[in-house]
Amino acid sequence: MALVSRRKNGHTTLSLVAVVYPCQLDEVGRCPRHRLPSMTPTRHNTDESQLIDRLRANEPAAYEQLVRTSYPKLMSVARRFMRNDADAQDAVQDAFVSAFKAMPSFQGDSLLSSWLHTIVCRACLMKLRAKRRRPDGVSIDALLPAYHDDGHRQHPGPEWNESPFDVVASEETRQVVRQCIDQLPEEYRSILLLRDIEGLSNEQAAQMLDMNVNSLKTRLHRARQALRTLLEPHVKGTVQGNVKGSSR
Amino acid sequence: MKSETTLTCKELIDQLDDFVADALSPEQLEDFRLHLEECPDCVNYLDSYRKTIAAAQHALTAMPPSTPEASEEFVENFMSTIRRISTPPSASK
Questions:
Q1: DSSP label at A214?
Q2: Option in A2, A33, A228 nearest B48 (CB)
Q3: Nearest C-alpha of chain A: how many angstroms from B25?
Q4: Which residue of A lies nearest to B68 if distances are taken between CA atoms?
Q5: Chain A residues whose beta carbon lies within 8 Å of the beta carbon of residue B35
Q6: Do A12 and B54 touch (CB under 8 A)?
Q7: How confident is the model at residue A105 (pLDDT cuts 50, 70, 90)?
Q8: Contact at CB, B10 and A80, closer than 8 angstroms
Q9: Are A156 and B10 spatial neighbours (Cβ–Cβ below 8 Å)?
Q10: pLDDT at residue A242 above 60?
């Protein structure tokens, strides 16, 4: 549901309309936001069922097959979390080892790919926690909107109608977005990745980060607002704007 | 921007995450509508908030490709690791 504003004869009218945002499809035509373990049918095809049986039997060839077939997808996930391919590869290696150790407890109530997705996310979070990449990074508070005493926003900034951050963006623009995401403090960046990119639910992400759901929701909202502030200087017409936080 | 509704910009923006998740009640949605009708700044903020989420999704799901396949060294490291950590039943005692 979205509120759509229309101007007519000097008056603004708003109406609630259903909006369907296009999914970002992966290489097999699924949206990352819609392939959650809880939302995914747990029907394993014959090949996957046979592979799971062989994995449970500790068959080395099955593990080799798992690594070779799952590596590209897990590496894609890990590269979103980690800063370089070497760290991403370490996280994927850890994830496969974790999968090997946990295989006896894999109940088969989710697809193998969904299970591995959760495991690699967890492996990345553990690595990031261990690295303590930027313990005192940018203050999130400096990137949040400022308000007047009456609750109205200071420094509204430009409209984003001319935003370059469309779905059809250039690689250069996407690089800018990735750099802005990387400026977020890690605890906020991780939540943004888990929820908005990897498609975990609030409950799944909260469980993975060992925090309660309300705290996670608050941090997600703050992460999005902070990222919005970081992106704003790149929106057309912002150069002369007085965007809070743009003078960092 | 002043609004005749009881909702301030801050109160509206604080609930944007619930709004984009379709988690607001009809009463809350009506408050949103009344505020946004009179507050173009918040309309813009809502629009930019949505675009921020979409931009993050697109930027990270369309990353340039890396190594498409696991290297032989990667596979061998993994296989040797699991050989090391797996203990055959006959060797457990």
A1: H
A2: A228
A3: 12
A4: A72
A5: none
A6: no
A7: confident
A8: no
A9: no
A10: no
Looking at residue A2, its pLDDT comes to 54
How confident is the model over A113-162, as pLDDT tens digits? 999 999 999 999 999 988 775 555 678 998 999 998 888 888 887 888 76
Predicted ipTM > 0.90: no
Contact predicate A44/A111, CB 8 Å: yes
The Cα–Cα gap between A131 and A150 comes to 42
State whether B44 and A157 contact (CB < 8 Å): yes
Query: Can you tell me the distance from the alpha carbon of A123 to that of A119, in angstroms, rounded to the nearest whole number?
Result: 6
Q: Contact, A198 vs A117, CB < 8 A?
A: yes
CA A124, A50, A201, A167 torsion-angle sign: positive
**A163 Cβ contact list (under 8 Å, min separation 6):** A235, A236, B48, B51, B55
CB A55 within 8 A of CB A101: no
pLDDT at A101 over 80: yes
Q: Residue A197: name the closest of A133, A137, A121 by CA.
A: A121
Model pLDDT, residue A155:
80
Which of A97, A147, A166 faces B81 most closely, judged by CB atoms? A97
Q: Indicate the SS3 state at residue A11.
A: strand
Cβ neighbours of B86 in A, within 8 Å: 58, 100
Cβ A153–B74 below 8 Å, yes or no?
no
User: In angstroms, rounded to a whole number, what is the distance separating the alpha carbons of residues A148 and A73?
Assistant: 46
Cβ of A231 within 8 Å of Cβ of B1? The answer is: no
- Annotate A162-193 with b (16+ C-beta within 10 A) or e (fewer): ebbbeeebeeebbebbeebbeebbbbbbbbbb
Q: A22-31, A179-188, B39-48, B54-63: lowest mean pLDDT where?
A: A22-31
Min Cα separation A4/chain B (Å): 9
Q: How confident is the model at residue A245 (pLDDT cuts 50, 70, 90)?
A: very low
CB contact under 8 Å between B41 and A221, yes or no, is no
